[in-house]
Amino acid sequence: MKKIPSIRLQDLIGLLNSHYPQNLAEDWDNVGLQVGDPKQQISKIMIALDPTPSTIQSAIAQQCQALITHHPLIFKPLKKISTDNETGQILFTAIRNNLAIISVHTNLDHAADGLNDWLANALQVEQTKPLLIAKPGDLVKLVVFVPPEAVEMLSLTLFNAGAGHIGKYDQCSFQQQGVGTFRAHKGCTPHIGTVGEQENTAEIRLETIVPRTLVNRVVTKMIKAHPYEEVAYDLISLDNQRCDIGLGRIGTIAKQKKLAEFAYDCKRQLGCNGIRLVGDSDASVRKVAVCGGSGAMLIREAARQGADVLVTGDIKYHEAQTAQSLGISLIDAGHFATEQLMAKVLAQKLEQHAQQRAWPVQYIVAPEEQDPFTFI
Length: 376
What we know:
The chain is of the alpha/beta class. The protein has helices at about 10-20, 55-60, 85-95, 105-110, 115-120, 150-160, 215-225, 260-270, 300-305, 315-325, 340-355; strands spanning about 5-10, 30-35, 40, 45-50, 65-70, 100-105, 125-135, 140-145, 175-185, 200-210, 235, 245-260, 275-280, 285-295, 310-315, 330, 360-365. The longest helix has 17 residues, at about 340-355. It is globular. The chain starts with 6 loop residues before the first strand and ends in an 11-residue tail after the last strand. The model has no long low-confidence stretch (mean pLDDT about 95).
C-alpha cells in the first residue's frame, strides 16, 4: 500500500502556537490539544467553530485525522470520561477514530492577524489596533555578534524565522560596529584566527525583537546559519507591551454612516438572520470597535477610546443600559455570526503556511455550521 505523505500532529500544534501563542489565552480558557497523540501522522485537517457531534462525524466521514475548533471541547477539568454525557461521547468517538482535536480560542482572539482582525476586515474597519492591549512580557530582545560579511544573511535568517516584528512593521533590527576578542583552545576550528592565539576581529552587534513563543525556533535557525563555531548571543526579557496583540479591535470606516445603515452592512457581511441595536438609529458612526463572540466587557473601554459603536454578541440587558449611559451604540450581531468566519479564514491562512513549508496536508472547512438561535 502506498504511504500517504503526512506531517506529525505536533508539527501542526507548533505552527498554531507560533502564530496564536497559547500564553495569550485567558486564564480560564483551555486551548491547545484536547485529545490526540502528538506523534500521530496527519494529512487532512478540518476546521470548525465548535466540536459538536455533527462536526466530529463530518470530520470522520471525510477521513480527517485532526479537527481544529475555536471553542474548546474541554473547558473545565473532567471528573470522569463516560458516554453518559456529550463530552464523553465526543471523546470516545474521537479516540476510537484517531481524530485529534485542537482548540484555538482566546489565543486566536488576542493574536495579531487573529479573529478580531478578520472580523474588522469583514466589516471594512480600517487602521485598527487592539482595543485592550495584552499584558506585557511577551517579547524578548535577541542580541547576536556576527562578522560584517555575514550580517545580511543572518538578519534574513532571523526575519524569516519570525523575528523583527514591531507593530505593523517587520524586518526591524539595530546594528552597531565593534571589535570582538577571543582565543580558541585546542580542538576548536575557529572561523577566524589561529588556535591558541588571542584574536581581535571586526564584528556587528545585531539586535532584534522575538516573540517569546518563537525564541527556540529563531535561536536554532540562527545558530545553524551563523558562521562561528560558538555563537555569542544574549536573550533579554522585555516588559514592553506589544501594540499588535490584545482583545478586540478599534478603527474607522472609510465613510461616516448612520447607525442603522452600518448595522445593515454588518448584517449582510456577517450573514446574520437578525441583529439587536442599542442607540439612536440616526446616530453617526465612523469610529468602530469590534469583538467576536462575547465582548460586553469592552463596552467601557470602547467608550473611553471614543468608539461610536461596538459590534459584538451576547449583550445582556444591564450591559445595554451601561452602553446607553456612556453614550456608545451597540450592534449585537450574535456570538455565532461574529465568529463563524473563523473556519474559512483560518483554513486559508494555514494553507498558505503549508505551501511555504511544502507540507503535504489538506485543510477543509466544516460543512455549514448553524447558529442555535433563530429569529421569527
